[in-house]
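Thread: quick sanity check before group meeting

JM: Hey all, I'm pulling together slides for Thursday and realized we never actually wrote out the predicted structure for the chain we discussed last week. Dropping the sequence here so it's in one place. If anyone has concerns about the input, flag it before I start.
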Amino acid sequence: MAQLSDPHIVTVYDIASHEGTYYLSMEYLSGGTLQQRIRKGLPLPEALSIAQAIAGALHYAHRRGIIHRDIKPQNILFRENGQAVLTDFGIAKTLGTNTIMTRTGLSLGTPRYMSPEQIRGQNVDARADLYSFGVLFYEMLTGNVPYNAEDSFALAMMHVTATIPTLPPPLSRFQPLLNKLLDKDPEQRFQSGEEIIDAITASDAGAFKRSTGNRPVSPSRGLGWKIGVPATILVSAALAGGYWFLYLPTPPITEPPVVATLEPPVSPPPVSQPPAVDTEAQARQAEAQEQQQQA
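JM (edit): ok, ran it. Output follows.
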């Protein structure tokens, strides 16, 4: 990150370590976050200006081989003069590298802004950032994210399969731009931040058109998973950091082991014994009968 020097990327002064703990020194940004401004409501000209600034910052980073992988309003701060600044490259990835997390199919990011390829655990490139930018752009225009659900798994599936939402009529001139930003197929998206800057200007003038329109995506195309993959998918959210992890596929579920109980064993019912026979009494009785017969 220290190699990045752009007006719309946070300035890092130094990276060092102390007793095994690494730290970095960066500029202080006192102007708040984009999330705060979205909550208050962004005037359209301001939203477009911020969007173009961040698209430019992404173009700069991507040309230097850096993918951010966590584009969201909380990671866009402002200087005191109102200049938008992209921050928090904490899970950034260098193009051409393949981390352990990527190799094992582990997805990193924030669910509301993750691209379909991130959700599938695929290796990502700069176009994943541009998809996340599209989610951000929709949120700046409308005040809401394009996809929302009660749990992370349902939200992930919406990014993979759901139709791109329609903008309100006053913003309809930006619909072709949004469709291209949020396309499920990276090949059909914008290929650079520079293209997005030009498209925003053209869209505001009503001059940006896209022939493909608002396309629904079939589950088979969107999911990209082969038949036979176990249907159970483990999704867990690290709520403290807001990062999300998706493992594909899940190992088969095994039966739980049999656990011995602590209750004492049940004794079998006692077997009834025949009454004891007095053999001596029987002998005396037989002797008396014999004497009677002789008499």
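AS: nice. The longest strand covers residues 12-18. The longest helix spans residues 44-63.
JM: adding both to the slides.
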